Each structure stands twice: as structure tokens, then as C-alpha cells.
Amino acid sequence: MAKPPSDASLLFGALAESGLIKQRRNGSFEMLLDGVKKIDWFTDRPYRVEGTWKPQKLLRKWDKYFATSEPNAQASFKVGGKRELLTFEMLKPEYNAKKKYFNFKLDTEIINDRETKLLNQSKNQSLDDVTLFIDDANPEVNIDETTQYNEDLTGIMLSGKDLTNIDLSGINFKQAQLANNNFTNANLNNSDFTKASIYGSNFTGANLTGAIFNDTNTAGGNFTRADLTGMKTDAYSMENPNITWSDTICPNGTKNIGSSPCKGDQLIAVEVPATLNVIDLSSRDLSNARLNGMNLSNFNLSNTNLTKADLSKSNLTQANLSGADLTGANLLNAKLENTRMENVNITSANLSGATTDYQSLSSEGIIWSDTINPDGWRCTGDKLATCNRWIERLQYTT
User: Fold this and answer.
1) What is the CATH architecture assignment of 10-137?
2) Distance between CA atoms of 59 and 296, rounded to whole angstroms?
3) Contact status, residue 184 vs residue 206, Cβ threshold 8 Å
4) Cα–Cα distance between 392 and 396 in angstroms, integer?
5) What is the 3-state composition of the chain as percent helix, strand, coil, each rounded to the nearest 5?
6) CA 68 from centroid of its chain's CA atoms
7) Measured between alpha carbons, how far is 251 from 210 in angstroms, rounded to an integer?
8) Could you tell me how far CA 102 lies from the centroid of its own chain?
9) Which has the closest alpha carbon to 219: 171, 261, 255, 264?
10) Could you tell me the pTM of the whole model?
11) Are 235 and 255 in contact (CB under 8 A)?
């Protein structure tokens, strides 16, 4: 089933067997459509995607797509044997799934007098062969700390936002319109800005290691103290005369000179190892984070929220996890050696195949409940004692 892009504007159409326009006691008007079985949607340019929804789905998404204002709509129908076309502002509809009734309030006065006159002429008359068109639904897109890693935000329009200190690593921003945003100290590691416009945006102190800037409009951008190590880019993107440079690490790992841009050999990317460049991540919210395969050795992750995080195959040797919440985390084949784990909550975590030692797993205050240990045992109920004995044996085998 087709799915609309997350940032696309949508237009909707529906067919009804018959309809009726009624005037309510307060003078407002309501249109009732009979026999609406589905809603057809299609994307506005530049996308070319279409699909169908049940009417209930449009109702669930209405407040998201029309958050700023109610949509314009048109209804075409036959009344008295004549085909008419009525334009109006449409309010949020209601739907009776059993009877297939689709009804909504409408306002024509906001359009013009001709529409209001037609509305009054058509009320209380049977409408046949009804089609409904709803114009230009724009999803309200929020980028915040809950944005998932590797999310596709191709073509998103987002400007003037405060995105300081946010983690947007791995995001696809191709062809996005990102003017005048504040990305100060943001983590944009491995994000793709190909053919995007970041006009006037502030990247002071941002982590842009491994990012892609090809054919990117960077005019007015500020890269003071930003880390561009390993960035894949071109001269067009990086040699714009209106960029602010100061103490910037260029794609080849060297710093720019004064206020001069990174250029020439400095634009040749060096390989970036699969590791984060921040050591202290204590007391952060990294729930649901994808940190699989990362080198987190010696990192300070104390008191950090890592619930349901993917840490599979990650290296946590000598890391500080004391007080961290790893509820439901995936630690499959992770490396946990000489790791501080006092008061760690590993409820429902999966440590299957993890490499570890007695010192780490015998730390004081570890919470075990429904935890899968490195040998694949589920540590809960009567098996909890078995898991404890397994930990005791570690002191003789590691």
C-alpha cells in the first residue's frame, strides 16, 4: 500500500452516492454525504504518489494536516438535474462507518457571495452523483529529541527553528529547505544535505563528521568551530563567499586559516571511524537510539536513559554505565569488559552473545528482571538464581 512522504502536501477526493445540505438552528450549514467508502489522496508537487485511506484515517490525521487553518474544498453535484460546483471552507468531518455517512460543517461566506447564494439555493434538496475535493493538507513536522536516527526527511521545509544540541545523526535532508535554523552544537554526523538549502543557518560547534554536502546552498551559513572531518562535499558547497569560517575542522581533518574557507586538499574527506566524537554522554536521553557497532569505550554514560536503545555489537569496554537505564536495550554481541555497571537497570535487556566479565556483571545494585544473559538464559522467576550462579562462575573463567 502506498504511503505519502512524511513532509508531502496532500490533496483528497471522495465520491458519494447522494448528499444533502442542511441549515442548522444557529444559521450554519452542514453537508451530509451518503455512501462514502474511501478517501483518495495524492501528493502535491514535486512528489507523484497516490493512494487510498479509509475515511476514519483522514479524521484521525485531520488535526495534524490542517493544524494552522481549515482547508478549502469543492463539491460537485447534480441538483434539479443541473450540475453545480460549490466552493467553501470545510471544517473537520464526522463519519458513521456503519451507514457510510460523511458529514461536515461548511462556510461559503469566506469565499464570495456567489457561493453563498448557491448554498442557499441547494439546501434541503437531494444532491446526486456527489464528488468532494479537499485542497492542500500540510503536515506539521516537528524535529526534536525524539526524531529517529536514519529518518528520511527528503524535501522537508523547516526554517527559523532552534535545533541547538539536538541529535540528528544519519538524517536524510536531501533537497530540504532549511533556511535560518540554529544547529549550534547539534550532532549531524553522517547526515545527507545533497541539493539542500541551508541558507543563513548556524552550525557553530556542530558535529558534521561524515556528512554529505553536495550541490548544497550554504550561503550565509556559519561553521565556526564546526567539525567537518570526513565530510563528502564539493567546491560549490564549501567555497561560497558568504560563509562564516573560524576555527573550523575541514573534511581532511585540518583547520581552516583565519576566516578563509576550507578549500583544495582540505575538501578531500578522510575516513571517519565508526565512533562518536563526544565522550561525556552522562544524564542524556538516548532512548531508542541506534548505537549499534559504535566504539563507546571509555564513554561516560552514567545515569543516561538508554531504554530500548540498540547497542548490539557496540564496544562498551571501560565505559561508565553506572545508574543508566537499559530497560529493553539490545546488547546482542556487545562488549562489556571492565565496564562500570553499578545500579544499572537491565530489565528485559538482551545480552545474548555479549562478551563480559565478573567485575562488570557483579557490580552492586544491578537490576535483573526478564533479562537475557550472555548465554541466552532468560533471568526471571526461578531462573534468576541460575543466572546469579552463572555470574559467580565468571570470576573463575575471566
Assistant:
1) Beta Barrel (2.40)
2) 45
3) yes
4) 8
5) 15, 30, 60
6) 20
7) 8
8) 32
9) 261
10) 0.40
11) no
pLDDT at 15: 94
Name the nearest CA neighbour of 335 among 371, 392, 297, 279. Answer: 297
Cα–Cα distance measured from residue 353 to residue 204, given in angstroms and rounded to the nearest whole number: 41
pLDDT digits (tens, 9 = 90+) for 229-274: 889 998 788 878 889 999 999 888 888 888 888 888 888 876 544 4
pLDDT at residue 277 in the model: 45
Cell of 248: 573550523
| Residue labelled with grid coordinates 585540518 | 254
Alpha helices in 234-319 (DSSP H): 235-238
Distance CA 27, CA 19 (A): 19
Domains 10-137 and 142-272 share a fold: no
Residue 184 cell numbers, joined: 549550534
219 or 276: which carries more pLDDT confidence?
A: 219
pLDDT confidence of residue 65: 80
Cell of 59: 479524521
Fold classified for 142-272: Pectate Lyase C-like (2.160.20)
Question: In the chain, where are the structural domains located?
Answer: 10-137, 142-272, 274-398
In CATH, the architecture of 274-398 is: 3 Solenoid (2.160)
With cut-offs at 50, 70 and 90, classify the pLDDT of residue 39: very high
Distance CA 53, CA 41 (A): 7
Q: Which residue do the cell numbers 500500500 mark?
A: 1
**Residue 111 vs residue 282, higher pLDDT:** 282
Which stretches of the chain are assigned E, i.e. beta strand?
A: 10-23, 29-34, 39-43, 50-53, 72-79, 82-90, 94-96, 101-107, 126-137, 212-213, 232-233, 335-336, 355-356, 371-372, 378-379
Q: Mean pLDDT for the chain?
A: 83
Nearest-10 Cα torsion for 130, 136, 137, 140: -170
In this structure, the strands spanning 72-79 and 82-90 are: antiparallel
The average pLDDT across 175-179 equals 84
